Amino acid sequence: MAIAAEPQMEHKASSGGAAAEIKRWTLNDFDIGKPLGRGKFGHVYLAREKRQSNHIVALKVLFKSQLKQSQVEHQLRREVEIQSHLRHPNILRLYGYFYDQKRVYLILEYAAKGELYKELQKCKYFSERRAATYVASLARALIYCHGKHVIHRDIKPENLLVGAEGELKIADFGWSVHTFNRRRTMCGTLDYLPPEMVESVEHDASVDIWSLGVLCYEFLYGVPPFEAKEHSDTYKRILQVNLKFPSKPVVSSSAKDLISQMLVKETSQRLPLHKLLEHPWIVQNAEPSGVYRG
Ligand code: AMP
Questions:
Q1: Could you tell me if 236 and 247 are in contact, meaning their C-beta atoms sit under 8 angstroms apart?
Q2: Which of 189, 193, 212 is nearest to 137 (CA)?
Q3: How confident is the model at residue 277 (pLDDT cuts 50, 70, 90)?
Q4: Which pLDDT tens digit goes with each residue over 251-275?
Q5: 165 annotated among ligand-binding-site residues
Q6: 59 pocket-lining for ligand 1 (C-beta < 6 Å)
Q7: Residues in domain Protein kinase (predicted)?
């Protein structure tokens, strides 16, 4: 299904005066289609915006009671605030939101090929061409975010969706921050946390370089690099940067070199994302179109 051009979804109506009034969305503006999935706080449905453009979207329906219970209202507000301002082919658009008494609705870009996580589970691990294409597109998206002082802080397969053409979309900005300062907060899933976040000291945009290194490893090996049975062992392995490359599946030394340059404890020594795009493994393997078609 084609995704219509963006401006049609902006949904602003002129009040006739100088200041344009922003027209509120309501559920009546949408035809609701099949369920696309279920998250922790509600459901996601395919939907068609029927007022203006017949634009196909994903409508995420979150229950206020559950958001309140889990004390994530603040996090959701931040997610909406940040994601709605980002415009990049590898970042899922958030067109708008509305709410009623019980629910909050997020109007999201529809990612026709669904979750990357499921694809990775199905394949066990990706080819170097596929992994490099994904890593390069994520690096471009993160360069864009960092340029806007947004750090994502939770890059992992579960937060990535795939568009109709096979392009990756960063989908979850629940842990992201808009920052001009260094941050100290503890967040994210353990496996993807860099040492400075495990230790809860100050961290900056280089946390996303670390997580992208972890993701690149998981793409190529099918498991994250510091995985251990006990949480405490994962912590230790992250802090020691106890990085091991198994002999199977066979992965090129060039890919291992790139991962080793990203998974570096000293934050200032991590390979900058623009340099990553020039790394021989990326140059030789990533599809120039940024799209992996199989
Ligand atoms: P979430 O609540 O974000 O975890 O979403 C629950 C599930 O709905 C996801 O795992 C996806 O399978 C699906 N989903 C969420 N957002 C979209 C989207 N924008 N396009 C397609 N499927 C989605």
A1: no
A2: 212
A3: very high
A4: 999 999 999 999 999 999 999 999 9
A5: no
A6: no
A7: 30-282
Report pTM.
0.86
- Provide the token pair at 196: 């400075």
Q: Crossing angle, helix 206-221 and helix 253-262, to 10 degrees?
A: 150
Establish whether 100 is a catalytic residue: no
Mean predicted lDDT score pLDDT of the chain: 86
Strand ranges of the sheet holding 56-63, from the earlier edge strand across to the other edge: 30-38, 42-49, 56-63, 103-109, 94-99
Residue 71: predicted pLDDT: 87
Residue 194 burial (C-beta neighbours within 10 Å; 0-12, 13-18, 19+)? buried
Q: Looking up tokens 């967040």, which residue turns up?
A: 187
Other residues' Cβ atoms within 10 Å of the Cβ of residue 207: 25
Query: Which is catalytic among the residues 154, 204, 208, 233?
Result: 154
Q: Is the CB of 35 under 6 A from ligand 1?
A: no
Q: Is the CB of 208 under 6 A from ligand 1?
A: no
Angle, nearest 10°, between helix axes 128-147 and 206-221?
170
| Pairing between β-strand 94-99 and β-strand 56-63 as defined by DSSP bridges | unpaired
Closest by CA position to 211, among listed 141, 292, 290, 119:
141
The amino acid occupying position 164 is A
Q: Are 281 and 258 in contact (CB under 8 A)?
A: yes
The predicted pLDDT at position 245 comes to: 98
Q: Ligand 1 centroid vs 21 CA: distance in angstroms? A: 31
Distance 112 CA to ligand 1 centre (A): 10
Count CA within 13 A, CB hemisphere, residue 237: 19
Mean pLDDT of 28-43: 92
Model confidence pLDDT, tens digit, residues 67-106: 999 888 888 998 898 899 999 999 999 999 999 999 999 9
Question: Which domains, from first to last, does the chain contain?
Answer: 23-109 (3.30.200.20), 114-285 (1.10.510.10)
Pairwise CA distance, residues 117 & 112, whole Å:
14
